[in-house]
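Consortium newsletter contribution from the modelling node. Members have asked for a concrete example of what our holo predictions look like. Here is one, prepared for the erythose-4-phosphate complex that several groups have been discussing at recent meetings.
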Amino acid sequence: MKFFIDTANLKEIKEAQELGVLDGVTTNPSLMAKEGITGKNNILKHYVDICNIVDGDVSAEVIATDFEGMIKEGEELAELHEQIVVKIPMTKDGVKACKYFSDKGIRTNVTLVFSAGQALLAAKAGATYVSPFLGRLDDISTDGLYLIQEIREIYDNYGFETEILAASIRHTMHVVNCAKIGADVMTGPLSSILGLLKHPLTDIGLAQFLADYAKGNQ
Ligand code: E4P
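And here is the predicted structure:
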């Protein structure tokens, strides 16, 4: 399972990269705004800064909602750096743009996916990644994990190569459950990755080992 971090915060991206388990970054316009990154040039520069920190894929989202606009913006984003994956919304024009980019060998991440039918369409259009939003479904008392399970089954039935990128991860158990049902990638906050480290018996055991060592080596 690949681990992506869902943020535009360079400090957090560096911390995750230094842990040695990071495979990529996803961003969206809200995450960029949260970091105060505004204006086209600053936004493009920020994507390059992120690419220079991580080794893996960096999703950069188009703002245009029409086909021509998405193509223009997506091509510009893809030219920025070889690690860029063009993030496109799940709309009619988005599906057309996904097919266009896929035919041109430009990698894509189809975002804002909330149903198995949308995920099927994204795979048919040749998406590199499809992003079902787990946490946002859970927020409205709908089982987000079940959606990922459905997509896994559909993709396996037909051998689609589109990778399932479990997005809108909120906590560590989302990560563990996504791994159990076979999501290819998860993207979440740094805390959802760091939470995997924690177990009280590890802390107690380590303290005991160190105390016993200290007793015999005074
Ligand atoms: C996906 O790529 C999105 O950036 C993201 O995971 C959205 O998560 P949220 O529901 O926490 O905003």
